[in-house]
Design a protein that fits this description.
Elements: E1 2-5, H1 13-26, E2 30-33, H2 46-59, E3 62-64, E4 73-76, E5 84-88, H3 95-106, E6 113-119, H4 129-142, E7 146-153, E8 162-169, E9 178-179, E10 185-195, H5 199-213, E11 220-224, E12 232-241, E13 245-251, H6 258-275, H7 281-294, E14 297-301, H8 306-318, E15 323-329, E16 332-337
Parallel strand pairs: 1-2, 5-6, 9-14, 10-11
Antiparallel strand pairs: 2-4, 3-4, 6-8, 7-8, 10-12, 12-13, 14-16, 15-16
Length: 338
């Protein structure tokens, strides 16, 4: 049986999620040891356990070791069964990260599916729903499948209880993508959202972003999400270019000033604009699995993060596929898959 070392590369939950996704897609059983070995609380946490259980239901899998705190797991899938599913994480853990483990296999399944995921939708260390909807899924659509995501209720840490509904219309095979140029920047705008918090938080974030990036008042928007079950804050800058859209986001946390949250977003935007690459840092790691399944895809991105190199390492354990990383400049790299 294929064995995956959960201590390799970034040593976190990304290894498990990518292994689950590839296992479902390729029908390969695996054993993972040293789960989340590099984290302060190693082993399976509720969010990771939710991903395992959801993947097991989707793939009619036999699983051994699925328990909170477990550092070793065996996952043996059978056939992926499309249909309607509802998965509840049980905490404010990221629903978008759980989706990462499930979506690739459903893109080429034998029929359509609908997933309802309950948990966090805007988490500090995970892609937000906005990123999923505006950046990631439009690229998946260019590969052939139809995927629609709807935010039915936002969920912030620690209350969670957000709801995302995802509908998938699969295709027989995935078309490769070639993301070499982003083209002309067509639009850039910012939005700050608060839920059960003072409006001045959003005002301060937008002031920092507007002044730093030279955005006119009409490019700055503010929203309130009273439907959220608990307090929260997220600020985003969306950059729509000729060939791709990027989104830089910051999630407010207790004790972290609004100016600090907004400043981090500004730095991410400036780095992206300065590099002239089409694919941002976080999108780069999320594209590895679907583009590897399509074969023959290429994209130009920033210096690969540990999450990107981790996904490439996990991919190499499951498939005999050539992945080439070429340095094009100080912060420009081309990644070719297959």
């Amino acid at each position: 049986m294929l064995t995956i070392d959960g201590a390799m590369e970034e040593g976190g939950g990304q290894i498990l999620r990518s292994a689950l996704a590839l296992s479902l897609c390729l029908g390969r059983a695996f054993r993972i040891v040293n789960i989340r070995a590099a984290r302060l609380r190693p082993g399976l946490r509720p969010q990771h356990l939710a991903a395992v259980r959801a993947a097991a239901e989707l793939g009619q899998a036999w699983v051994e070791g699925a328990a909170i705190g477990a550092r070793e797991l065996v996952f043996t899938p059978r056939a992926v069964r499309p249909g309607r599913y509802r998965f509840h994480i049980g905490t404010a853990g990221s629903a978008v990260l759980v989706l990462q483990a499930l979506l690739p296999a459903l893109l080429t399944a034998r029929g359509p599916s609908e997933l309802v995921l309950e948990g966090g939708t805007h988490n500090p260390l995970a892609p937000s729903f906005d990123f999923l909807e505006r950046v990631f899924l439009p690229l998946i659509a260019r590969m052939g499948p139809g995927v629609q995501a709807v935010l039915e209720r936002p969920g912030f840490y620690p209350a969670g209880d957000g709801v995302i509904r995802v509908r998938i219309r699969p295709v027989a095979w995935l078309a490769p993508l070639h993301l070499e140029h982003r083209g002309e920047l067509l639009d850039m705008h910012a939005c700050a959202v608060v839920a059960h918090l003072d409006d001045h938080i959003a005002h301060r974030e937008l002031r920092v972003i507007g002044e730093a990036l030279g955005l006119a008042p009409e490019r700055l928007a503010q929203q309130r999400w009273e439907e959220a079950k608990g307090p929260g804050n997220v600020v985003t800058v969306t950059l729509r270019s000729q060939h791709i859209t990027e989104l830089c986001a910051g999630v407010g946390e207790r004790g972290r000033r609004a100016e600090v949250v907004a400043g981090a977003v500004v730095r991410a935007v400036r780095r992206y604009l300065r590099s002239a690459v089409p694919v941002g840092e976080h999108l780069a790691d999320q594209l590895v699995v679907p583009l590897a399944l399509a074969r023959g895809s290429t994209y130009v991105t920033l210096r690969p993060s540990r999450h990107t190199t981790t996904n490439i390492a996990v991919l190499g354990r499951f498939q005999d596929i050539l992945v080439r990383t070429e340095r094009l400049g100080a912060d420009r790299y081309r990644i070719t898959l297959g």
